[in-house]
Design goal:
Shape: elongated
Helix content: 55-70%
CATH architecture of the largest domain: 2-Layer Sandwich
Structural class: alpha+beta
Largest sheet: 5 strands, mixed
Radius of gyration: 31 Å
Low-confidence stretches: 1-13, 77-92
Mean pLDDT: 77
CATH superfamily of the largest domain: Reverse transcriptase/Diguanylate cyclase domain
Number of strands: 7
Strand content: 5-15%
CATH class of the largest domain: Alpha Beta
Distance between the termini: 17 Å
Strand order of the largest sheet: 2-3-1-6-7
Number of domains: 3
CATH topology of the largest domain: Alpha-Beta Plaits
Amino acid sequence: MAGARAVRVTNGGDTEGDLYDRIGDFLRDQRLAPDPANYAFAHHLFTTPDGPLARAVHALTDGGVRLTQRDIETLGCELRASDNPDKEEPAKQAQGLVAQTQMHVEGFADIVTAMRAETAGFGRDLAASAAAMRSVGANDTNGSAIEEVARITGSMLERVRSAESRLESATREATELREKLEEARDNARRDPLTDLPNRRAFEEAFAAQAGQGRVCVAVCDVDFFKSVNDRFGHAVGDRVLKAIGEALTQACAGHLVARYGGEEFAVLFTGCEVDKAQATLDAARASVATKRYRLRESDAPLGEITFSAGLTDLRSDERYQTAFHRADRLLYAAKTAGRNCLHVG
């Protein structure tokens, strides 16, 4: 199970440290030696999650089977990143957003610089105006000094209006930039298919809740999901994932449900004991198992859809990875025990 999950779970925003930790976890879960060849294999697996190698590993590990050293040698990792053109589009979109944001920042900086120059001009004009007013005397019968003051004042007012216009534009651009950044931040933490929080959002929420009271972590995996895709296609598989996500969200209302990757979901229970979390999650499992899904196009029965789950509570001063791996091992035990069940530990 750990091998299949490792292939499916990806996050473009992972740091080098995150990638290093995940590769180490993968090698430990698969009981593979941490030698250069195995590290290179795992590195390619995580950095090219939708490529031919990942699909082959997914097929081998479906059902909880661990990879062997012979599998590693047979599969190899002499594959190019260009084998996966689908990854280029999100990267291009991210680059476009970065470029657009940079343009907004530079534009705002230009406006601020211009306003600073206008302010310096105000100071010079004020000094000139004061000097002109001091030079006004009783013998200034033609009013030239008054006219000069009026001219400078008019120029100052025009600059004030220009500065106000620029300030309004800068404020508007700053608002747009803030909205874009908020949207980018939200998109980076949300799964586009199910609209659920993603792995990054789940881990951030866990970090925020650690030490704040009772916390339980559950890992759920759709049973025989590969066969659904093989028999009915990925479009139907996507609808199944959305249905499972909605069922978990409804049953676990008040708690965080995330799509952790592939056909795997994670639930963060906060403020409740493990027995209550168990009852809630098992009710969700039973609800999904009793539904009879049908194909939208032909109304033909899709067959039974179930999921297995592992649930554990966070122990004192325990790290996230420790608790999550324990829940993952419990999920593996549930799969081994026949699926469509929940194991707690």
